[in-house]
Amino acid sequence: MTPNRTNILLDSNLLAEAKRIARRQRSTATRVVEQALREYIDRQGAHRAPYA
Fold first, then answer.
1. DSSP characters over 1-52
2. How many CB atoms lie within 10 A of CB 18?
3. Rounded distance, CA 44 to CA 41, Å?
C-alpha cells in the first residue's frame, strides 16, 4: 500500500509523547502514530482490508 501524506491536528503533548516513543524505539513519529491508529481500528473491529 502506498503511503499518503495528510495533515492531522494533535495535542502538542500527545505529539511530544509520540516523538519520545519514536526516539526510544529508534523509529519515527509517523510510524508510532500509524501503529497506534492500526491498533485502535483493529480493536474497534472496523478494519476490512489487511494493512501493507
1. -----------HHHHHHHHHHHHHHTS-HHHHHHHHHHHHHHHHT---S---
2. 19
3. 5
Q: What is the pLDDT of residues 26-51, one digit of tens each?
A: 999 999 999 999 999 888 886 566 65
Domain boundaries, the chain: 12-44
Could you tell me the CA-to-CA distances from 23 to 8, 27, 32, 46, 52 in Å, in that order?
21, 6, 10, 30, 23
Q: How large is the greatest C-alpha to C-alpha distance in the chain, in angstroms?
A: 31
Has this prediction a pTM greater than 0.85?
Answer: no
